[in-house]
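Subgroup meeting minutes
Present: P.N., E.W., G.H.
Scribe: E.W.

1. P.N. recapped why we're keeping a running log of single-chain structure predictions: easier to compare across weeks, and new members can see raw inputs and outputs side by side.
2. G.H. added today's entry (98 aa).
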Amino acid sequence: MMKKDSMKSLKEVIDKVLKINNMHSKLDEVEVVLAWKEVFGDVIHKKTKHLMLQHDGTLLVTLLSGPLKEEFNHEKEKIVKMLNEHLKRDVVMRVRIR
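Output recorded in log:
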């Protein structure tokens, strides 16, 4: 029988495997894309052409509407805060609107 403190939690083992295989960033990106739709709704989601999370935490957002681009450019910090609060951790560090 193994000692309790020598056993790693499943989360620790999974995190280590993901880190070794550099998969954390891809999982983060999937979570951010799903969060985008949940946080901003269908209308914004349908006007979003492309979302990509870079390794440094920059979220690149391509929007199809000029007025929406303008509005989101003024609310970048709020966007970061809303997404991270939804994800319950800091994944998005900054937003670039294109």
